[in-house]
Amino acid sequence: MATNRKPETVLEERTRRDIQLYRQLWRVRLFDRAVSSLHRQNKILGGVYSGEWQEAIPVGFCHFLDESDVVFPLHRDLGVFLARGVDPGVLIAQFMGRRDGLSGGRDSFLHAGDLERGVIGATSMLGSTLPVAVGAALRFKMLDESSVAVAFFGEGATARGDFHEALNFAGIHHLPVVFVCENNFYAYSTPMSLEMPVETVAERAAAYGMRGVRCNGQDLNRVLDVAEAAIDRARKREGPALVECLTYRHHGHSEHDPARYRPEDELAEWAGRDPIQLFELYLKNRGQDVAALAAEIKLKVEEEIDRAIAFAEASPLPSGEEALRHVFYEGAPLPARVSIDASVLKRADAEAGGRTVEAVAGGARVGAPASSGGAKPEGHGGAAGPLPGELPRLPAATETTSAEAVSYLDAIRQALDEEMERDPAVFILGEDVGRLGGAFGATRGLFEKHGASRVIDTPISESLIVGASVGAAVLGLRPVAEMQFADFISCGFDQVVNTAATFCYRHGGRARVPMVIRLPAGARIHGGLFHSQNPESFFLSTPGLKIVAAGTVEDAKGLLKSAIRDDNPVLFLEYKSLYRRAKALLPAEELLTPIGQAAVRMKGEDLTIVTYGPLLSFCLEAAEALRAEGASAEVIDLRTLRPLDLETVARSIQRTGRILVAHEDRRFAGVGAEIAARIAEELFEFLDAPVLRVASADTPYAFSPPLEEFILPDTAKILAAARKLLSY
Ligand SMILES: Cc1ncc(C[n+]2csc(CCOP(=O)(O)OP(=O)(O)O)c2C)c(N)n1
Fold it and tell me: N or C: which end of the chain has fewer CB within 10 A?
């Protein structure tokens, strides 16, 4: 303990620390200037965002971080990378788009990270990194680790909804995260008075039940004080904090911006608050020969910069085809288990106020039929209500009256339960997934069995749900997020397409994002415009996402289990109209449906019908009717929409020469459009007729039954198209 040490030792330590910090300040500044200079020489393309005058903040906060902590830098925070020990040569190579950069040239400085050093890259979407940081902190809390997450952002980002969702959730769960706002008073040209109606960012902390602190971000000693206190509290599980560091940027918003919108006298005033000069004053007061120290440090840093630039310039540019690599994780699959001690989860559970199985012995049971208790989704009468139009009988494999038959919804619940049982890294989060068991009952009983720390009720915060899943996933957990209805994924859209889908790519393939988003999708439940959507076409053109669609009870279980084991973000489309209607006997042995493989559901020679999800049963019914007319149709269930199994489709077309694609999603730019284009490009010579599509009309999903019936595809529409094709 410090009190037992000799006074001179304490002094020496303090001096050593001061010199190390002073060196770090110069290092950040000189590297920052070198980057600006390389940009002026056109050696760095794209945007460069200088952090000059803001250096004390990353230097101060990173000083208290351990190796296992994680940090989320702002676009000006070159200092975070340097302070965390990222190789400067690799950093400059990243700026220059070279092969040896963190992302191998896939993106610019801004969006890279170095997971080995606990630096997690942000996207350009300001504030979007905050839910991800919360997900990392959630992992630390769940596993009772003493690590913390520190997230940097500008005051401009506090106007984003992600700021609110992240701080709200962190406050509710007392997560070990420190939110560090670098308030430089401008978001690009917009002054603070037009960014927020309050005087300070810190006062907003009160709304989230956390400590709000404001400090002079130019004075490294003040930053160190607040950083130490906030990080220490978070580490001791005393709660998150919002720290507002007042600062100013020397340069314009980017190196392209002359920043004429700032008054000259304001700039002059802040020039007097240069953090390096302020720290030099302090060092002088402590008797340091600052001039000599500065000269020595600058010389060494200049040498380091020269070496870094030489390394980067010697690094080759990537070859064009390298753009195709790392869209998905290519490395070895994660071990089935991260080493998680079950007793730790129990402890976390007690803290979360949850009940364990023992505590509710005799209570709810996993696997209890969904119909055994109440939950009707949002007053819509549930998926079991009367449905528009005549519904086809489900194929024998998925419809049975056997007492042991499992419903589609039960199959989902079984998949979740089995995977949670098998792998403690798997956990569930979403709205009302806990005690209620989900709006449809998909998670019923899991809260009681696996505890509150693994079945987490979230506020209505879809962006947080997805973003936090990313944060937890990149740190080794396997979150399964539930959207209450697939429609609400629109509120988490940015986190899906920008944060999750690009993560592996922008981290140069050195990161995996094993997460699943369950999407209760589809029409025929009287849901109207916002509870009936099929969201796949929002996501089909986004690289980095896998999209699966379960059309049978077997696949509801087998595909979900495979999705949970996948090392990439998977959108799992499940269908409300099948939840209670589809039933099947499931095999006792492990059921894993491979992702990326279509299934031939009915063999045929005259026509190929390609479908997925809820239209499968309609297509099978149409195929039966065609058989009665003397024509044999082959029915293919895609099961995975991305990556698309075109080979199975191609094999069929080569025999039948005729193809119809049927889906419940809208026609325009749907899966059918992609399949039709690919067939035209690659299989034209096998076709005896044009590719036809049967899909929903290009309207919203209207509510009134005759309108909905008119819009949706059904057996009659499929049959009509099939007959047209056969007579071509
Ligand atoms: C969601 C989003 N909208 C707009 C932008 C464009 N943009 C980039 S930086 C910036 C200003 C950011 O201000 P602030 O968050 O205060 O950080 P600072 O740049 O001042 O450090 C804007 C508007 C963006 N990157 N993301």
Answer: N
